[in-house]
Amino acid sequence: MAKDFYHQNVRQALEKDGWLITHDPYPVKIDDVGYEIDFAAEPLIAAEKDELKIAIEVKSFVGPSTINEFHRAVGQFNDYFVALETFDPKRILFLAIPDDVWERFFLKPVIQKSLERVSAKIVIFDPIQNTIVKWIK
């Protein structure tokens, strides 16, 4: 499976933010349905982040239509969310979004409402500095 355009940027940003990448990708299989979430990570120092385990799906939004990319991202997020409920229910799924896309598109009220509908958790990253800008739970 092809990796997102910003895959390595997000990996570096997570590592800078104190996360240990445990899987790249993170395979999830339920019955005969298989998924590959971009990353699974755990805190480098568990006490600092309350032993939190996360999964990250990276979305670059580099295609010609942001709304089509959004539809794909939300659908994929929902599928992965449901799969993780069975496969690894303690792991929290995040959608990784570039900061410029967050600012110009994701802050629109209708987009925020869609994210709320699927209980999306977001990690915003800066693809130039390879840093985490914000976690939205």
Question: What are the SSEs and their pairings?
Answer:
Blueprint: H1 7-16, E1 19-23, E2 26-30, E3 33-37, E4 39-43, E5 54-58, H2 66-87, E6 92-98, H3 99-106, H4 109-117, E7 122-126, E8 131-136
Parallel strand pairs: 5-6, 6-7
Antiparallel strand pairs: 1-4, 2-3, 4-5, 7-8
Total separate domains: 1
Instruction: Specify the structural class.
Output: alpha/beta
Number of helices: 4
Low-pLDDT stretches are none
The CATH topology comes to Trna Endonuclease, Chain: A, domain 1
Q: Major β-sheet, in short?
A: 6 strands, mixed
**SSE run:** HEEEEEHEHHEE
The appropriate CATH architecture is 3-Layer(aba) Sandwich
User: Taking all residues together, what is the mean pLDDT?
Assistant: 91
Strands of the largest sheet, in order across it?
Answer: 1-4-5-6-7-8
Alpha-carbon Rg, integer: 14 Å
Could you characterize the architecture of this molecule?
It is a single chain. The chain has about 140 residues and is of the alpha/beta class. It has helices at about 5-15, 65-85, 100-105, 110-115, and strands at about 20-25, 25-30, 35, 40-45, 55-60, 90-100, 120-125, 130-135. It has a six-stranded mixed sheet. A two-stranded antiparallel sheet has the order 2-3. Strand 7 (about 120-125) and strand 8 form a beta hairpin. It is globular and about 35 Å long. The two termini are about 30 Å apart. The mean pLDDT is about 90.
